[in-house]
Amino acid sequence: MKRFSKLINVRELLLPLGQLIMFSLGSAIVLSTIVLVLALLLDKTAIGMAVTERFNASLFTYTLINLPQVLIDGLTIGFVYAAVALGYTMVYGVLEFINFAHSEIFAVGAFVGVEILIALDTAGVLSKVSLGMAFVILILAILAGMFAAGALAVTVERVAYRPLRGAPRLVPLISAIGVSFLLQDVIRLVEGLTTGQFNRIFPTFGNFDERLIFGEVGLGATTITMGISIKSIIVIVGAVLMLVGLNYLVNATKIGKAIRAVAQDRTTASLMGIDVNHIISLTFLVGGLLGGAAGVLYALKFTRIDPFVGFFPGLKAFTAAVMGGIGNLTGALLGGIVLGMLETFAGSYMGIFTMGAAGTEYKDIFAFSILILVLIFRPQGLMGENVTQKA
Amino acid sequence: MNKRLFVLLSVLIIASMVLTACGGGSAASTAKTIKIATQSPLSGDMSAVGVDIKRGAEMGIEQMSAALTEMGFKVELAPFDDQGNPDTGVANAKQIVSDPAILCVVGHYNSGVQIPSSEEYHNAGLANVSPANTNPKVTTRGYLEVNRIVGRDDVQGVVGADFALEQGMTSAFVVHDKTAYGQGIAEFFRQEADAKGLKVLGFEGTEEKANFDALLSPILAANPDVVYFGGMYGQAAILFKQAREKGYMGMFMSDDGFDSSDAAKIGGQALLDGKGTYYSTVSGPASVYAGTAKFITDFKAKYSSDPQPFAAQGYDSAGICLKAIEAAAKAKNGETPTRAEVANAIRALKDYPGITGTITFNSIGDPVVAKYFVIKVGDADPAKWSTNPVDQILDIAPPAP
After folding, report:
1. Could you read off the pLDDT of B182-226 as tens digits, one per residue?
2. Which CATH number applies to A7-389?
3. In this complex, do A303 and B218 lie within 8 Å of one another by their Cβ atoms?
4. A343 shares contact with chain B (CB less than 8 Å)
5. Nearest alpha carbon to residue B184 among B219, B149, B137, B233
6. Roughly what angle, to the nearest 10 degrees, separates helices A276-302 and A230-252?
7. Fewest beta carbons less than 10 Å away: which of A226, A284, A372, B328?
């Protein structure tokens, strides 16, 4: 047992798991408390009356009954954001520039995974596989998406960023935006030439669309069923595995030590015998792998993808990375979970709390207002203090 | 480094100038060629329908330009891709009006694109026959140049609400996509619902294309009899699928933007579960029109696929353009008519025998009677989309101009 624990650093496996649970629970408790208090305060006002009239239930009951489902939804999308945010934050940590092409890396991962599944579906394989086989195929598709995205990320770094390494900071940033547009249209072109279709649909197979029901709660005249779909569980489990794996790689392995060294001081790291270019490529590879897997998981959860699918999740994940403190891995986790939660809470409750004046359509405005507030009081982001050691 | 960049940039600028100069030069040398332009989304997420509008017009020109050919004209199609994007549509429109050979435009698929683009046609006096745009504003601006051969959203929203009431629905949740088209139709649905006592439990706009979890919480809590979506299938089908996954078992309704086989590809079985999915449209499947049998056979032979909705309307729009150009040219003893003459000739057409019905335009360019359909999604297989059963066919005149 002792030898085993020497081989595998258990602490670095458990720590991020603990952090994930803590962040999820923490943001869940904080946000739930806020909406419940708000609901109690507004219960006796016109807003509460309106709810009572519509649902035969007080605003507080309405809020409480919807809460579990909102939490599950928020957590699911939060983990997706976190997985993508890690790609931004890792590259920033090492190179101090925002890799805006990461959203297209994500899209390419999604496309490769989905195209493979569609091909299998057209060949008639998917319709008759057993449940176990379905999971194996899904995992293979995720792996394929990961490796395609990882390879692409490394290529992009080699072609578009490495030649600009010594240039002023804005130059690689513009190059990244250029690559982002280029990749979008390359996907569009390739899809247009090969399939002639813009929308690609994640095929239905296995039992991923099924829903585990926890129970039904009456709300006035209607009942609300609470549950979680299998695919949400897959998304959460997949994201947690990736997040823990990445944390382990960075904090408990020799490669991770090299990555951290390069992030801290590139010149000194190279004097210590670290191949800086190699490590930077590796950082892009790891970020790409995560982005690609997140892409396939995203397609699984939301069914439809198109060449511009990366834009919004990419933007949100970048926001999450900034909110958590860019350059900081733990911060990206926290930022992703908090942003996903905020967005889902805002979308689910704003309509009720404002009597329909500002509905779900304003959820992004709300989430981004919180981001601005966070940055006013903590410009370095929620977990930003760890980055101060950077030059 | 900087010098090299400067040289590169200058070369690029000079090259682009030379290229545009060439482009301008070649357009002028067209004496007796007449062009009919199409504008529809040929790429992007609405291309399935947009491409078939172009194909319909293409077939229309092939089959119906004989009279003009005899008069010594050469009729060509000039297809443009508006990408379903207003900016692209307007940029194309500027290009179209600057080509003197173009006498008529068949277009657009999206009202949000047609409305700004047709300002350009109006300024240039260029006739526009719309095969698909249903927003009232397309014609209510009263432009002589702008006509459409389909119905209007202010009637279509009403048709939707009336249908829901006929099915015994008592409450509805209305969602729209915040575009001129989707929001417009949703508001007409809400007005009619309010007036006739169908309780509207919520009215929400969203640009979301993937994650409807947050929007679905209030919908599920309200548990309406029908969820109405004003907008396009790309959003609607995903919203409907996710709603079913969360256990909503009521009815879904949408509008003619839902009418694409991709909706079945996205939504699949979810559209058939519960109380099913219905959509109102101004364009029935090509097979419900009396005159389309030959069109469908020809279309299949030429493009080896079933025509999408609005393909037959594309064919008719091109036919109207050709007929009007022919009439205007005859009035001028075989000379090429001006754009204004073509525009006037279109308005003057009486009882044009199209394959989707007999068309006469009123004083603002609406057809005097338009057909409206309510169609049920009948099969989860996208290949069978065109066999969706038609529940209702209504002939309704547009509101007085």
Report:
1. 998 999 999 999 999 999 988 988 888 888 988 898 888 888 999
2. 1.10.3470
3. no
4. yes
5. B137
6. 170
7. A372
Interface predicted TM-score (ipTM): 0.83
Residues of A in contact with B234 (CB under 8 A): 199, 304
**Structure tokens belonging to residue A220:** 């006035």
User: Which of A226, A300, A304, A315 is the mutation pick for testing B, counting most B CBs within 10 A?
Assistant: A304
Q: Are B310 and B283 in contact (CB under 8 A)?
A: yes
Q: pTM (2 decimals)?
A: 0.80
Distance from CA of B304 to the nearest CA of A (A): 14
**How far is B222 from chain A, CA to nearest CA, in Å?**
7
d(CA B236, CA B245): 14
Contact list, B208 vs chain A (CB under 8 Å):
360
DSSP assignment letter at B380: S
DSSP string, B118-157: HHHHHHHT-EEEESS---THHHHT--SSEEESS--HHHHH
Nearest of B203, B182, B206, B181 to residue B194 by alpha carbon: B203
Residue A164, chain B, CB below 8 Å: the answer is: no
Distance from CA of A47 to the nearest CA of B (A): 14
List phi, psi (to 5°) of B374: -115, 125
Domains of chain B: 32-150+289-368 (3.40.50.2300), 153-281+373-396 (3.40.50.2300)
